[in-house]
Structure to design on (383 residues):
């Protein structure tokens, strides 16, 4: 049961961290809770569908369907996160202002809300489908399989949710002045981390050269399958043995989104003061 | 004639060695890898065919190789690796990672 709990924890952690970062990053938006829950629900439905069609997906593109499917999900999420951060670069000040004054929420946050829904749904779907497959295996495999599945799954999910809640509480304690700068930085690192994972999948599909494998090896200092390694992987994309191409993708996306944010906030500054 | 034949034969043999993509097969049965050690040549790309004979899905994972792939039940998955430096690279069937049978090593030389 503990083995099952650990795997479910590991798989659910990444999605849970993404949910808490997005929850914090959209603080002050009208009815964002509803959109977040919608995203989780859509993601769970998506995960079950992906899990049941895994065989079909795996056989597409000369057996590289799984890799390309993940790349598609990851790059869509990167685009959404980029959009979110650039949107925040022009609306963040407004949101922070409202958090100080009244509880009235921003009205033009509709498109932003569908972005959160999509980002969360994609994260839950990607991590969830592997969990569903794993739990299916456990449930059908051994004598008291179903019992192990339910107990291990619940325990693992609860642990993942606990870490995510702690992160959320920690983020909320950031002073309002720095709040959106902090969450934007986290979203930026999240996008870069997803780009690095997409690069890893493209290398695995033999569509990108790996360039230097690995470019560093810190598995002796902090192995990725430890809890700390897992959390860092989920938060900032920590990889103990990354390929050079992953680093390139990470830095590339980081720089491009940062430039977009700077450009938008520069352009908006005069109109706010006028 | 013999003197001319040998270099030509050698050339053909060398060309074949280059052209063929190395494939190695790894079987999973009752969540146990067979063989436990895979020998792979250094410095070239290799396809690992993972044949999952179980009805339940398995996940091939190797942190050392930076590879991770779900192999659905009763199916075969292809994992591209390399070119690799000589050494030993561990892999594991993640869904049964604590069991002795679910551990394996790729030996590159």
């Amino acid at each position: 049961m503990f083995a099952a709990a650990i795997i479910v924890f590991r798989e659910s952690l990444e999605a849970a961290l993404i949910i808490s970062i997005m929850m914090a990053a959209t603080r002050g938006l009208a009815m964002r809770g509803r959109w977040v829950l919608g995203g989780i629900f859509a993601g769970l439905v998506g995960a079950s569908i992906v899990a049941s069609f895994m065989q079909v997906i795996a056989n597409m593109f000369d057996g590289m369907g799984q890799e390309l499917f993940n790349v598609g999900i990851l790059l869509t999420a990167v685009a959404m996160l980029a959009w979110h951060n650039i949107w925040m670069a022009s609306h963040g000040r407004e949101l922070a202002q409202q958090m100080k004054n009244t509880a009235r929420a921003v009205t033009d946050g509709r498109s932003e809300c569908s972005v959160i829904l999509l980002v969360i749904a994609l994260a839950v779907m990607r991590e969830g489908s592997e969990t569903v497959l794993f739990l299916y295996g456990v449930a059908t495999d051994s004598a008291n399989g179903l019992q192990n599945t339910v107990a291990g799954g619940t325990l693992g999910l609860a642990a993942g949710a606990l870490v995510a809640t702690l992160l959320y509480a920690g983020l909320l304690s950031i002073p309002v002045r720095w709040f959106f700068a902090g969450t934007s930085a986290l979203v930026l690192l999240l996008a870069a981390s997803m780009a690095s994972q997409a690069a890893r999948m493209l290398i695995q599909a033999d569509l990108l050269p790996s360039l230097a494998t690995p470019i560093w090896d810190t598995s002796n200092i902090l192995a990725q399958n430890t809890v700390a390694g897992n959390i860092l992987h989920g938060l900032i994309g920590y990889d103990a043995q990354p390929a050079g191409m992953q680093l390139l993708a990470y830095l590339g996306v980081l720089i491009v989104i940062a430039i977009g944010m700077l450009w938008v906030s520069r352009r908006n500054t005069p109109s706010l003061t006028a | 004639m013999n003197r001319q034949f040998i270099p030509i034969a050698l050339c053909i043999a060398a060309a074949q060695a280059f052209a063929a993509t190395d494939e190695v097969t790894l079987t999973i049965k009752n969540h146990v890898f067979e063989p436990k050690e895979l020998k792979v040549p250094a410095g070239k790309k290799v396809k690992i065919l993972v044949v999952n004979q179980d009805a339940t899905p398995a996940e091939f994972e190797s942190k050392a190789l930076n590879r991770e792939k779900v192999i659905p039940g009763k199916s075969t998955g292809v994992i591209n690796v390399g070119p690799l430096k000589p050494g030993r690279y561990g892999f594991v069937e993640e869904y049964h990672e604590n069991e002795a049978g679910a551990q394996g090593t790729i030996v590159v030389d």
About this structure: Chain B has a mean pLDDT of 86. The two ends of chain B are 37 Å apart (CA to CA). DSSP finds one helix and nine strands in chain B. Chain B touches chain A at residues 45, 55-59, 63-64, 66-72, 75-80, 84, 94-98 (CB under 8 Å).
